[in-house]
Structures are given as C-alpha cells and as structure tokens.
Amino acid sequence: MIEIEDIVFRRDGAPVFDGLRLRLDAPRVAIVGRNGSGKSTLLRLIAGLAEPQGGEVRVGGVKVAKDRAGALATVGILFQNPDHQIIFPTVIEEIAFGLEQQGHPRDEARRLAGAALARAGHPDWAERLCHTLSQGQRQMVCLTAILAMEPRWILFDEPFNSLDIPSILRTEARIAALSQKVVTVTHDPARVRDYDRVIWLEQGAVAADGAPGAVLPAYVAAMERLARETPC
C-alpha cells in the first residue's frame, strides 16, 4: 500500500500540498488534473525523490524519503521525458546502473540488465547509443531499467506525452501487462478509463476520487466548462 499521511509540501514558499492524505492499494490508479495541481510533485514524493516539509509517505511500509535503498526496491518512476532520466551513453549501462545502486557488482548488474533486455524483446539493444533511439524506444529503455530492479509499484508521469498513436497503443499495452501495481498521471482520460481508481487533483487537494466511470466524466465536464469560461 502507498500511504500518504497529511503531507505538507511547499515550493518557493508557495503551498503545493497542505495536509493531503491518501491510501493507494488498487492495481491501477490514475491521477488527473490541470497543470499545477500537484500531480507530478505527488509522484516524486511517492518515489522518495522529494521530501515533504510535513507528514510522511510510505510505500509498502518503506519511508521512501529516508530509506533510498528501500525505495529503490519498492517503487520505480518513469518520467515524462526519458531524456531527463537517461544518464549513460549505452542502453546496457543505463539499465545496469539501477542494479548497481541496489548493490549488485558491476558484472552481475550487466548480466541482469542483459536478461531484462531479452525479456523486453530487445537483446540487440545492449550496445546501442541511447541518443540514437526514438522517443518511444528511449522510454522503453527507462521502463526496462525499472523492471530490472523488480519494484512493487511503478509510477508513470504522462507516459503518452509526445508519442505517436502506435507508440501510445504499445505503451498502453505494456502498462496493462505489468504485474506491478501502477500509478499513472495523465491529461488523457481515455487512456485510463479501464483503471481501477481515478483521483482528480485540484490545487493540491482531492476534487474527486473513485471509479473511472464516475470521476472521469465529471473531470472532463469541468475542463470543458473551464474552456468555455476562459477567454482565448
């Protein structure tokens, strides 16, 4: 379970969250909301990449902001832009890095990385340069690196952004096939209509929380109303 306990988070003195409390345990959870509502910040807090000024986030009992080793074994995050995540020149180095962070010796990490690439259906990518891959392929490298570490939860921040339709459909299928529990942030309600739970964030607070069939129509209607009321 992801436990978000009364978190307080400010950025440059401005409040993003002020006492947010959530429990996430469904296999597929989606988070929707306007830009600036706190969606991506919430994912970073769940992954332990940001620490709240108040309250606490636990994933599977791990205090992710305090226990980096425990966080790496429990939760992985796929950023909106894979170029913000990839730091090594070759695919095998990129995938092996997280395994080394978990304590695997370098040779063992590379062996496990190669096995992860084989499971992903791309054993021939090992020595390819990451910058030569397409956006969707670089995203696949990032996901493979996460899967190699075998976390219990995987967080996706706008995974369909900047992808063409075939890549969107492939990404959607990959997420659906994962054995891990998933939290997905998206601006595209159609991509999460089959999820188990949808949370609509508005200015750092929960505007609605429940089944997609209830939350998504209300969210879309509110966004359409906002578009009509906002001058071009």
Core attributes:
alpha/beta; 7 helices
Question: What features would you describe in this structure?
Answer:
The protein is an alpha/beta fold and 232 residues long. The protein has one domain (2-229): 3-Layer(aba) Sandwich (Rossmann fold). It is 37% helix and 26% strand. It contains 7 helices and 10 strands. It has helices spanning 39-47, 68-74, 91-101, 106-119, 135-148, 165-177, 212-229, and strands spanning 2-11, 14-24, 28-32, 54-59, 62-63, 75-78, 153-157, 181-185, 197-202, 205-210. The strands form 2 sheets. Strands 6-7-8-3-9-10 form a 6-stranded mixed beta sheet, sandwiched between helices. A 4-stranded antiparallel beta sheet has the order 2-1-4-5, with helices on one face. A hairpin with a 2-residue loop joins β1 and β2. The longest helix has 18 residues, at 212-229. The radius of gyration is 18 Å and the shape is globular. The chain starts with a strand and ends with a helix. The model has no long low-confidence stretch (mean pLDDT 92). One of its GO terms (molecular function) is ATPase-coupled transmembrane transporter activity. InterPro entries: AAA+_ATPase (IPR003593), ABC_transporter-like_ATP-bd (IPR003439), ABC_transpr_CbiO/EcfA_su (IPR015856), ECF_ABC_transporter_ATP-bd (IPR050095), P-loop_NTPase (IPR027417).
